[in-house]
Design brief:
single chain; alpha+beta; Alpha-Beta Plaits; 17 strands; 26% helix; globular; binds adenosine-5'-[phenylalaninyl-phosphate]; binds magnesium ion
Amino acid sequence: VTPAPAKEAAAPQEVTINGKTYQTDSWFNAPENVLALTSRKLHLEKDHPISITRQILESKFPGPTYKYHNDFDPVVSKYENFDSLGFPADHPGRARSDTYYINKDTLLRTHTSAHEAQLFGARTSPGYLISADVYRRDEIDRSHYPVFYQMEGARVWDRSTVPNGDIAAAVYADLAELPTHDIEVEDRHPPFHAERNPLQTEHHSAAEAEAIAAHLKRSLELMVVDIFSRAKAAARQQDPDFVDEPLRVRWVEAYFPFTSPSWELEVYYAGEWLEVLGCGVTKQELHINAGAPSQLGWAFGIGLDRIAMLLFQVPDIRIFWSRDARFLDQFAGVSDDLSKLQRFIPFSKHPACYKDVSFWVPLPSSADGGNDMAVSGQEFHDNDVMEIVRGVAGDTVEDVKLVDQYTRPENGRQSRCYRVCYRSLERTLTNKETNKIHLAVKSQLTKKLKVQIR
Ligand code: FA5
Ligand code: MG
């Protein structure tokens, strides 16, 4: 992994992504190192942990009821990613501090839900799964990377084709066909909440929504049970001291603009509750706007990287992007025979090198449009710092934390200190090399964010 050169390239007039060319404008904020990953498609790479995870999840949602879509382009319209799903105009997810824009109307999808409206309209199958790369400007640590993978799932029933138009009966009939399980599931919240998670009274009854929710929950619980039983089987095989604990999962109330009611599924793992997916009863407006008003159903979105990290015991999300044979060879043959699944055996852990960078944040008046990262008029964003570090250091950065922040009362100037942890997963970084990277980080922070290094 070679750090990017420190020299500055001018923003391109156009960019080509997976063979298609797009005009950029002042909204463009996608760095080269992120654009370079749009062609990797780890979810389709045979024997890659992300791809294996996809395969296992797909097996829980069989055809022909469910159709799989694994090749949707990551460039979508702002309309598809946000408006079609009912995101309000001022939703923070739309900000340039959180989302990679190509131009004001075009962006790198931030979630696979961007394709829901299109598939609800196509009506090619009652259920579908979409697996794809998604992009978010975010913090840097061992579980966050600007690109990760999601799987979207949805299932609909059509009021005009089920017997007597009785959706609840049709859903319960399908639920009866699903296997059962014997794990402990906590589900403490009432199904509806008047403000946060109202019943869609104009469109269906409580009994219908409850039937859909029951089908949704069982389907997802079965998926989690399968993943964790495979994870445990691998653990038992490789680790004689492995202590088998019963799987605990719980449903917690959640909010999404395009589902109501909504939930998140959490799994108790290694001493803590871990969020693995979001889901809910789809808002009827989506089906109506897609030209399929008689359909109703559920949708979910799950993080494939997060599941793969649990399944393969991967401690750092960066390793998924590695081309090191010591990583990839550990999974050879698994795509064709899932019983060969093994936990990842880390190669020797290389030493970390911590470096601090402290600087004065420019006062708003001095952000005279020369600041090409932060959104003008918005506050100085952590994600801007993260992106610059990632842009320079590539995969040699493991973690970036804000460790100190204060404002000088005399002049209102803010000082910040970030601690950067440099560590390659593949080799030992020399001190000289790390210093060089860190110097380049400082120089880019000065140049792009107009900070004053202390
Ligand atoms: C969504 O993205 C919704 N589109 C999910 C959804 C779909 C809800 C359909 C309702 C119906 P969220 O931002 O919480 O929600 O992400 C969903 C899952 O993606 C998370 O539960 C997590 O497993 C994974 N995820 C989110 N952010 C990251 C990240 N930075 N790195 C790795 N995985 C992530
Ligand atoms: Mg979430």
